[in-house]
Amino acid sequence: MADERKPADPPLRSQSPRPIVDSKSPPSPPPSDKVFSPSPPHTMTPERRTIVEKSLKRKLDTRCSLFVLIYIMNYLDRNNIAAARLRGLQDDLSLDDQQYATCLSILYVGYILMQIPSNIVINLISRPSLYIAVVMLVWGLISTLTGIVTNFSGMVGTRFLLGFVEAAFLPGALLILSKWYTRKELTTRNAILFCGNLISNAFSALIAAGVLSNMQGVLGHAAWRWLFWIEGGLTMAVAISAAFILPDLPTNTRGFTEEELYVAQLRMTEDVGEEDKDAEGQKIFDGFFMMVRDWKVYVMMVAFTAYTVGLSFNAFFPSLTQTLGFSYVPTLLMSSPPWAFACAVTLVVCWHSDRTQEKFWHITLPMVGGLVGFLICMVTLNTAARYVALFLQASSYAGFVVFYSWISSSFPRPPAKRAVALAAINAFSQLGNVAGMYVWDLKEDGYRKSYGIVTSMFGAAIFGCWVFRTILARLNRQMEREEATAVAEGRVPAGEKGEGVVTGSETEDGGVVGPRMVRPFRYLL
């Protein structure tokens, strides 16, 4: 995934690392005593910078690829209950439809409760790889124990605990990626991470088909119990490797050279105009209070929650595929291709979003495709048409991935605030998953009424994204005016072409317009 890069731009003034130049005499130190200036490993030319950066990203991409496998296991352990239902779980536990929906939704209650505390913790510790590994080991154990439950209360308890522990992974992984990748790289890397989600939807059906069709009655146990035991055991095996492979921070990760770690920090400083570091003396909950005061967060919460309700068909995908009229094994096998298609669409959409640095249309156009799929299923019971519609519905996940990178790029600094914003928006959106579990009780006419509900939710999400884009555009214009005024009044010098200027103080809404900035920060639209 590493790519070529032009030689480094002119060095940043203020809080960026001092330039590393090939010169007989070192440059004079900046006048400020607050300049962020880690000691470079040695003199580095622009050409050397390019070579080191390629090596850094190659190593980083390789190690972060484990996140994809972890996300696959995360989703397998969360959603295998849908496949188990087709092989007798609901009958064996004597669950009615409302109780089954409760078993699905209770997971998100635990998920919501743990996300913000977990991301506060992971932003404070120096070895987040160990934290992720321990969390994964615990949720694998809980998933395994799900295979021994015998009643409704047991299933509710294990599902709640599973959601509580699994909550640490996704916002934690997104935070780690945002500490290493620039805004021009982050959407593609998030897409690769979310391919774990989409691949799990494709392969979970294949794994479930194999287990459910061959393990019935083995050692006297139902096949659906074996499904939980096998997938939970695989999760615990992967967890052990995570402690040794996943990266930690750009300041302390083992396996990188001193040059590579220096360039990693330099890249993140150049990306926004200040060091990716919390202020000295910052208290543990300061990031939370900064997030609460930023009203942009609430717009994203509402839009993302509507989007999540619209995507709730995911948990019922085998049941939706079953409306095509096939038995459970063909149904599971036919559930896989739409998600493989969605994975390909997501990679293309996110790559193009990074290339163009545009977010709104890359979020809303996949939703429009999903809306077409919903409408097809509402107006016809034709088998071929409904199967094509499932492909369109699954591909709407592409915009969901771009949305996550929009969160990171809209709350770039300080990292404590970014960590809480990611967790808070993701946690609030899980209310959409809770509500979504009850949307699909309306089975008449091939879930026509259910499709009507998610159609309206996609419409609300598109409107919310438009509102958020309008807000960011207004803030960008405000920053441009402030910079122009500062230059006109002579308070700061105009920068070289493409370099920007140094401006006043940070805006109340969280925009990065401060004396530490050289390249003018702009929100991505």
TrEMBL record:
It is a multi-pass membrane protein. This is Major facilitator superfamily (MFS) profile domain-containing protein. Keywords: Membrane, Transmembrane, Transmembrane helix, Transport. The keyword Transmembrane applies. It is found in: Membrane. The chain crosses the membrane at residues 99-117, 129-148, 160-178, 190-212, 224-246, 297-317, 329-351, 363-381, 387-407, 419-439, 451-472. InterPro entries: MFS (IPR011701), MFS_dom (IPR020846), MFS_trans_sf (IPR036259). Residues 63-477 form the Major facilitator superfamily (MFS) profile domain. PROSITE patterns: MFS.
